[in-house]
Amino acid sequence: MLHNKSFVKKTKAGKVMKQVREHYLRDDIYCGAPFCTACDTSAARLGPSASTILVVDTNVVLNQIDLLENPAIDDVVVLSIVLEEVKNKNMSVYNRVRAICSNSMRKFFVFSNEYHRDTYIKEMSGETKNDRNDRAIRVAAQWYQKHLGGAVKVLLITNDKENKRKATEEGIHAETVESYVKSLDRPDLLDLLVQPSSEDVNMEEVEDLRPSKRKIIYTEHKPMSEITSGLHRGIYHQGKLRVNRYNPFEAYVGSESIGDEIIIYGRSNMNRAFDGDIVAVELLPQDQWQEEKSLAIACEEDEDEDDGVHLAPNSADDAPRTVPQQSSTGEVNTTPSRPSGRVVGIIKRNWHSYCGSLDPMPMPAGSGGVAHALFVSKDRRIPKIRIQTRQLENLLDKRIIVAVDSWDRQSRYPSGHYVRTIGEIGDRDTESEVVLIENDINSRPFSSQVLACLPPLPWSVSAEDLSNPIRQDLRGLCVFSVDPPGHCSYSASCMQVARILMMHSTVHLFQMEILKLEFVSFVSRICTDDIADVTNFVHPGTPLDEEASQRGTSVYLVERRIDMLPKPLTEDICSLRSDVERLAFSVIWEMTPEADIVSSRFTKSVIKSSAALSYVEAQARMDDSRLMDPITTNLRNMNSLAKKMRLRRIERGALTLASAEVKFQIDTETHDPLDIGMYQIREANQMVEEFMLAANVSVAEQILKSFPLCSLLRRHPTPTREMLEPLLRTAAAVGLHLDVSSSKALADSLDHSVGDDPYFNKLIRILATRCMSQAVYFSSGDLTPPEYHHYGLAAPLYTHFTSPIRRYAGKYVIVHRLLAASLGISKLPPVFQDRLQLTSISDNLNYRHRNAQMAGRASVELHTLIYFRNRPTDTEARVVKMRSNGFFVFVPKYGIEGPIYLTQKGEKGSGEWYVDEQQQKIKKMDGSISYSILQTVQIHMEVVEPQPNRPKLQLTLL
């Protein structure tokens, strides 16, 4: 049956055109019930012994997804019109409900009501889209009742009073979510329900949970129409709210409209905004603007304040203080202030599920099984969340997940609901799981559909692979791999051959592997970079490809790795093992003895590695003058080329920065940390890095030349003067002048930043790193060529061709496919013609990459706590950042940063301190003591628990 749908569309020229779209209706769409006598039941998904079939409306799916994910809820029909509406309103919930529907262990069935002849409905005159959708849901529920002929009860689940009323009048069984859950006699499921707003509950009972001296009323959020108008007129400024991880009462909103960050002080000015929300901000009067350095470091006990807004600047007692400062010439300097503001509206919420535990509390008497409790997130940036639970006794010693439902003006805390229990508080596996959940890392086992895409094991290079004309046989090269312990290998090779009396060199780089180099003569060199040919096994549009695209990257925790691709690929098929043939994608260069690239070419290949070395082993070989074997000789020759390549990069302006990377020695049985220290960078690391960088640049040039509008590249934006200001102030305070006019000028300045302290230069470089923006992926069609520039590498073009097993980007699949298409090896997949989808892929890669980084850091913090839990330690630290009540220090030996408090909460009089901005010092008001930026101090480190279930590493001055 054919039905025509017509609608009008306005063209870019302003003309109105009528368009007609054909809508095909069918009568062979099945109901999904295995006991149905009218339908084909071969693909039935509902339970054979179901007594009730649930039909859920859109709002139930949107708001009660945590309940639907519980295995106790089954035999559910999800209508296609509901799925489409959920997709338009919340993509995250849409993906979650699709995952339930595709899970063979769950009894969820998607019914295409919009394409069934008996359930499709036409729009009625004067009917809103929402009313039409509600009517379509009722029609489908009624059809199920008639279609199944009373064999089972069909129940419409809706919290919409009007929809429920109409359903009842039409003879449809309908219930609210809460009513249905109560009928299951599962009190624990009631905890999963989204809580009503505080206007609908007894506020006296709720507020008794945390006694207060005064009632907190937040400012009403502006409606979107007023926000939009205010943004256009420049009254409001839009940006993402980022809450300070060390002080939950201090936040920042990056605003393009004023070209600076707006500081938000206190919960009252944050106005119920969460970290990550897109907000509209109104600037405060300029006399209320504050200098960032005058802000305080929040103490743990601050979070138990009865009002939660004690740092708000509109409170004279609690506002951060700006102290006039006197220069060496006697002139008084006013501290430069930065824009300060308040949130007037939420443009887009970033609410999700949070991990933490309940505030310890006595079991309430006579509560009828329902207890009000406060949930404390492990993330200090998140305010406490009020929940109701019928499982209080079982949850007090557990890490749990809670979702936020609402935050009303009259409520001190947001309201939420319990989602699930993770495990016992303090258990290492539980706390590691928390790290993954908090950073949205998918650690679930790969599905059977994904694993079905893998070739059978044992796998080996076939005769067909060897005879394939697109694949060059490079097994004659002497190949070796060099990589960190526990990682896949990255390989390269270098050989010398006679050719026209010229020196050439080729080095092969493979995905995470380093090929072994062998110099045969001194007449010419060939160097090749070979990356494992993962695209040979991951084909476009397959479940394996879609899974890799969603995961985006592998995640490295202290004690384990969360793979982007299944282990048969990462640890076997695509890993360069000694004396095993493997498929690769090679970049082949002709190079002069001075490491100048004469020419480049790219080919799919077959290689055979003859050795697997760690960075430590490779470095030991190069350092041992007694070793003259081919592998060691090739390592030294390759290192010689790498040094020349590195020097040339630095001459172009590439920055040599530093980061506080921490390395743990882990007990193989208990997985507890045995030792901790700064990660050591060796020449072997730098050698691998140089050839990987060169391969990535070469591939970027190749794919952009072939596909100028759809290449996936990586850029590093040039930092603004404002971003570099903290570094410049620090340098000036210690007598250094840093030229930041270009990356080359900054690199030279950093090279000359030396002092008596051997660690001084590295510390300056760490501070410089923290002033940089993050490098990001992008599609070449979204930006102009000058914006492609990678500031840190001083490279006009860059991408990620290396490490495809770990990184989806070109980082493998995408860049490898682009490169193969540019060589005519394969066709360009259709996704590269969809600019919006390419942008979406880039955004997801950036999101996943950042989350992986944050998860890695959180894992380091967790294991640092475990290591120091029974090891109180005295050590040296450097002052790196000033605050009005203390400063932050960096501990070189352990790569740890944390706050030092100089005053206790509420301390007054002679104990007060102030920040001397010009000299970068924090001084006591009576002038008796001062601390300078980068000063060495002796500290004591000890794990304490200022709040129950929230241990932290406390740093104190000795």
Q: Can you characterise this structure?
A:
- With 958 residues, this protein is of the alpha+beta class.
- It folds into 5 domains: 2-188, 3-Layer(aba) Sandwich (Rossmann fold), CATH 3.40.50.1010; 195-425, OB fold (Dihydrolipoamide Acetyltransferase, E2P), CATH 2.40.50; 456-646, no CATH class; 683-861, no CATH class; 872-957, Beta Barrel (OB fold (Dihydrolipoamide Acetyltransferase, E2P)), CATH 2.40.50.
- 28% of the residues lie in helices and 26% in strands.
- The strands form 12 sheets. Strands 5-4-3-6-7 form a 5-stranded parallel sheet, sandwiched between helices.
- A hairpin with a 2-residue loop joins β8 and β9 (247-255).
- α3 (80-89) runs antiparallel to α4 (91-102), α19 (630-652) packs across α20 (683-706) and α20 (683-706) crosses α24.
- The chain is globular.
- It starts with a strand and ends with a strand.
